[in-house]
Amino acid sequence: MFSIIAKSCNNTTESEENKDIESKLTLHLEKEKKELQKSIADFRKALATRDAKPASSYCTVDPIFMPNKAPVTRGKILLRKL
User: Fold this and answer.
1) pLDDT in tens, 26-49
2) If you placed Cys at 65, which of 43, 57, 73, 77 could pair as Cys (CB 3.0 to 4.6 Å)?
3) Residue 8: which residues within 8 A CB-CB, separation 6 or more?
4) Residue 64: what pLDDT?
5) Phi/psi of residue 59, each to 5°?
6) CA–CA distances in Å: residue 53 to residues 18, 31, 39, 63
7) DSSP-derived 3-state class of residue 65
8) 73 forms bridges with which residues in the sheet?
C-alpha cells in the first residue's frame, strides 16, 4: 500500500513539473511571436518609407525584390538604389 501512495505522489510532482515546463514554453513562444511581429512591422515600415538600408538588413546577400509596377531588383546594392 505504501508503494501505491508513493507512486501517486510522484505522479503529482511530474505533473507539476510538466505544467511548469509547458508554462515556460508558452511564455517563450509568446516572446518570440512578439519579436517576430516587431521585425515584420519594422520591415514594412522601412519599405513604406522607402528606407532601403534597414529594409536590406532583413535580406540575404542576394535578394530578389519584386515591387509592384517596377522592375525586378537583384542584390542588396541595387535594392538600396531603389
Assistant:
1) 888 999 999 999 999 998 898 888
2) 73
3) none
4) 82
5) -100, 160
6) 45, 26, 14, 13
7) strand
8) 65
The Cα–Cα gap between 65 and 57 comes to 13
Residue type, 77: I
C-beta separation of 72 from 64 below 8 A: yes
Q: Which amino acid is at 37?
A: Q
* Pairwise CA distance, residues 73 & 82, whole Å: 8
What DSSP state is assigned to residue 62? Answer: S
Sequence-separated (6 or more) residues with CB below 8 Å from residue 77: none
All cell numbers assigned to 73 = 531588383
User: 39 with 58: CB under 8 angstroms?
Assistant: yes
User: How far is Cα 63 from Cα 79, in angstroms, rounded to an integer?
Assistant: 8
Alpha helix stretches (DSSP H) within 1-82? 2-48, 52-56, 76-81
